[in-house]
Prior knowledge:
Layout: E1 9-14, E2 30-35, E3 42-49, E4 53-60, E5 67-68, E6 76-77, H1 86-89, E7 104-109, E8 116-120, E9 130-135, E10 143-148, E11 155-161, H2 169-179, E12 184-188, E13 203-204, H3 206-217, E14 221-231, H4 233-244, E15 251-255, E16 273-275, E17 278-279, E18 291-294, E19 300-303, H5 305-317, E20 335-340, H6 348-361, H7 364-368, E21 371-375, E22 396-397, E23 402-405, H8 410-431
Parallel strand pairs: 11-12, 11-14, 13-16, 14-15, 15-20, 19-23, 20-21
Antiparallel strand pairs: 1-2, 2-5, 3-4, 3-7, 4-6, 7-8, 9-10, 10-12, 16-17, 18-19, 22-23
Amino acid sequence: MRPGPFAPHFVVVLIDGGSPPTPLFTRDRLDVRVVDLPPCRDVDVEFRLDGGFLARGRFRSSPGGAVSTTTDAPSAGTWAGVHPDGPFFSSSNGGAGSPTTHDLVLTGRWDGGAPFTAFVPRAVLPPGTVVTSFRETTAAGLYADFYRPPGPGPFPGVVVFGGSEGGLGGGQLTGQGLVREGFAVLAVAYWGVPGKPSGMSRIPLETFQRAVARLRQLPDVQQQKVALLGVSRGGEAALLAGSSFPADVQAVVALVPSGFAWAAPGSSTTSTWTLDGGDVPFLAWPTGSSSVITRDAGYQVTFSAPFFLGGYEAARDAGLAGRAQIAVENVNGPVLMLAAGDDGVWPSCALTSPAWERLVDAGHALARGDQFVCFPGAGHSINPSRAGFPLADLIDRGTASTRSGYGGSASTDNDVNHALWPLIRGFLADALR
Length: 433
């Protein structure tokens, strides 16, 4: 043991030991270290993000007087076990909202002296990204944000959109992460904004066809190939649009999707989608029950996945599911479908497996290099752009006594989010080259 005085302080490096890049992005995985501690001494570390997000860990210093989030497990805190991403995925503000920036503020406390701090700036978009907003409020208008990556173009283009949350938020979240990879992204709203349907009812699939055409017209976008990337109900839309407009769409990525078109919420007579003005054939909105559990904390969590599974199985057993199945084999390019094995919102693996079978049976999977992955234990919130984000509040969503269950766990979803990046990046790079 070396004699004091001791001057504990933070050292932040990448998990492989390398120096953090400039800028440091949210999905860059970090090793947060405390050095120059007395040996075998407890130190409490707080990890804060904006919006009131907080994670904590108590660590025991090594004989050399150091702590590392990559090699050491906290004896107490907001996560368990050795996990360098624990300070991020376990961070919570009680479900009060999402962070707007992702800079990390570290505070360490020990019983031998004053607290010590460090500030770690983190970025989502690379510097030099140019964002152009379109707010056209006619029915055929474009309501979207365009992200042009820094550097010389032209760039491969991706039209990105969310699902049942409506508006631009889902497309913005998912699309922004692709900009770092050199993709020009058009994040699109297709309902819940001025000029578009107010709910998920009779949404024209031509909305996505027009978005692809507009993206091709924007400066520094490659003209030859454009991909669609949709999440949840947007994943359903991406598969529908890709199969409906094969001359316009050259690749599809569908995240926690359905391989079937569904009715407008609550309806047995109206489709969520239209094509050429007519309703797209659909599965009727289910009439069964969701499942409800009570957490140890006393609040109830409602999972809608059994509700959707029951609706699908009833239609299948009655011979009615086939008409609503999406003709994914008509997509003029590769298809990547990514589902969650513990999806609490709808059973994305079960709803996507028939689409995969269609691709295989048609020879499309072999010819085009399609992929389907069902991630065991993952929930509906998986999203590559959430790598390095707070996830604890996304498992049971809400702040009231009754919450919506999205399934998965913060730790599992975090690992899947990091795995999704190379998978999607490689797929799009091959599909759009």
